[in-house]
Amino acid sequence: MTAISRNPPPPSVDPALLAAFDGVPTATISDCLDRMPVLAGLRAFHGRARLAGTAFTVRVRAGDNLAIHQALEEVRRGDVIVVDGGGDTSRALVGDIMKAIAESRGVAGFVVDGAVRDTESFADGAFPCYARAATPRGPFKTGPGALNVPVCVGGWTVNPGDVVIGDADGVVTFPPALAPTLREAVRAQAAREAEVLAQIRAGRYDGRYARVAKD
């Protein structure tokens, strides 16, 4: 068994900051961040529950979940376990047992650049889980791995302590320091889009709003 590199967990994101983004679509957040911070290729394996929390990052060897088990011993309530599995989908990195452990410890959800299994358990529950694919094949448990380091997930760098927001469209992340200006930007974007929709419903849309609409 190979040792896991462990680093101190980052500060938890202020719950009030997370609440400020409650109900804000990930599409709008992405638009207001130059359409960049999207974890591409991941999809939701749960129902309609939103995801919001603090990134607790994990890097694993392809198909090996020893470091994720270690993470489950160190997470705090409200953390999101964000796993850089290298996009490998040959073996599942999490399943229903790890989901049960995570739920019991107040974890906000899983984001896995790799595969999961026991998908019916996720689909029937409200525990958020985003991943690249599903497979019944189980993982290795020998390591190596690392906790709370910058990781690459879906082509985007996620740092420990980043804000993680997920909805039916996918997952976006951003540093907490961006939250105040980002919140004002998404409010302004939402107002512009509401105006576009009102013009369309009233039959007065003339195309001038195409540059501000998110679609």
Automatic annotation (TrEMBL):
Name assigned to this protein: Putative 4-hydroxy-4-methyl-2-oxoglutarate aldolase
Any one biological process term the GO annotation gives: methylation
Domain of life from the UniProt record: Bacteria
Residues annotated as binding substrate: G95, D96, I97, M98, R117
Residues reported in the UniProt entry to bind Mg(2+): D118
Names of required cofactors: Mg(2+); a divalent metal cation
Keyword Transcription regulation: no
Gene Ontology molecular function, alphabetical: metal ion binding; methyltransferase activity
Family matches, as Pfam families: RraA-like
Keyword Methyltransferase among record annotations: yes
Top-level taxonomy: Bacteria, Pseudomonadati, Pseudomonadota, Alphaproteobacteria, Hyphomicrobiales
Keywords on record: Magnesium, Metal-binding, Methyltransferase, Transferase
